[in-house]
Specification:
The protein has helices spanning 2-12, 25-30, 32-67, 76-91, 94-100, 102-109, 115-139, 144-151, 156-167, 169-189, 197-207, 212-240. It is built from twelve helices and no strands.
Length: 244
């Protein structure tokens, strides 16, 4: 909690027009159980939606790459159809998607509010999002590694498993990092519909109750979370990059 306390103390030094402190540290301590719950809810959204997106988006991205004009097994007509569907899903703003699939969310989790309900649209949005990343990452490897593997007699499955996914690991880790950072902000939007998490906390206290200090705390938490994900992802990608 030291980083959070440091951020709070720095921001607390700023004052509003009347000279009063931006927030009361005692109020932060008083609301810490709710803040901790909000952090846990945001983490729950990410720890469910992101792994599912990776699990389902990776094969979809591999399929898109393989069926593309320069892929392992071009199927242009089918590729255009699936490619169009992926683009359509990715074009939906998250808040609109969240509202549009309310009947499906209720069918899957039995409710349309709370953390569990937000995980459904987050996951649906994340799958095509990551699939496109996978396709682009594999495409950027170029045809040289594929031709070399073919010359050694590798099958399509071996090319994907032992060549493309291995060579593309640093880029894939970078894509997971970018996706996670983006979905931290998406999870905050869920607060507008009572989805829980840091965004919900910020709206309840910072917006409805005009407690600017609590809004600042929520902002600090989001910044720290994004920084942690970005730094960890960058370091892991660099460690897996054979070129360094």
């Amino acid at each position: 909690m030291s980083n959070l306390a440091f951020g709070i103390n720095v921001l607390a030094s700023s004052t509003n027009g009347s000279g009063a402190a931006a927030f009361d540290l005692n109020r932060v301590i008083e609301l810490w159980p709710e803040i901790a719950l909000a952090i846990g809810q945001t983490l729950a959204m990410l720890l469910v939606s992101i792994p599912i997106a990776i699990l389902l988006g990776t094969p979809l991205g591999i399929w898109l790459y393989s069926m593309s004009p320069n892929g392992l097994r071009p199927r242009l007509r089918i590729h255009r159809i699936v490619d169009g569907l992926v683009n359509t899903m990715r074009s939906f703003p998250f808040l609109i998607l969240l509202i549009a699939i309310i009947p499906f969310t209720r069918f899957v989790v039995g409710t349309t509010i709370g953390t569990a309900a937000v995980i459904v649209p987050l996951t649906i949005n994340a799958i095509p999002y990551f699939a496109r990343f996978v396709e682009q990452n594999l495409t950027q490897l170029g045809s040289g590694v594929v031709e070399a593997a073919r010359a050694m007699g590798a099958t399509r499955g071996q090319i994907v498993r032992d060549v493309l996914l291995v060579e593309g690991r640093p880029a894939l880790i970078g894509s997971i990092t970018i996706m996670t950072v983006s979905f931290i902000s998406y999870s905050a939007m869920a607060g507008l519909v009572g989805g829980g998490g840091i965004g919900d906390f910020a709206i309840r206290y910072g917006y409805y109750r005009y407690e600017t200090g609590m809004m600042i705390v929520a902002i600090v938490l989001m910044i720290l979370m994004v920084q942690l994900v970005q730094i960890s992802g960058t370091r892991l990608a660099a460690r897996l990059d054979k070129r360094h």
